[in-house]
Amino acid sequence: MKKICLAIVAALLLTNPSSGEDAVKPYEPEISLFQSVDIIKEYLKSEAKQDYCDKYLTSVRHHYSEGHPRKGPCWLYSFAFKKPRLGGNISIYHFMDGEIIEFHHGP
Predict the structure, then answer these.
(1) Phi, psi of 20, deg, nearest 5
(2) Rounded mean pLDDT of the chain?
(3) How many other C-beta atoms lie within 10 A of the C-beta of residue 61?
(4) pLDDT at position 24, please?
(5) Global pTM?
(6) Is residue 51 a contact partner of residue 22, using CB atoms and an 8 Å limit?
(7) Is 41 helix (H, G, I), strand (E, B) or coil?
(8) Beta strands in the chain (DSSP E)
(9) Which N-terminal residues, if any, form the signal peptide (predicted)?
(10) What is the pLDDT of residue 22?
């Protein structure tokens, strides 16, 4: 009985045509990191709602936002205050369609 089950499982694995198609495909963002950095630098100079002279960039990463502030892949820039303080960090979401959203954390 065990051999029959193993033979059936082996036959299914060998004859399944979609087994190679389910492999993870590489992902390349529509906006490269270098393009995004240039766009964000211009944004900080001319359109930013917050003042960033007392903050520093803590991280930049590719992120998939699950719906807050919006759903979709984006570059996430995180800023923190130069002088330590409670709350108030800021994130800038640069979505792949070009939309930029500033998000203020905490009070």
Answers:
(1) -80, -25
(2) 84
(3) 10
(4) 73
(5) 0.73
(6) no
(7) helix
(8) 55-66, 71-81, 90-95, 100-104
(9) 1-20
(10) 58
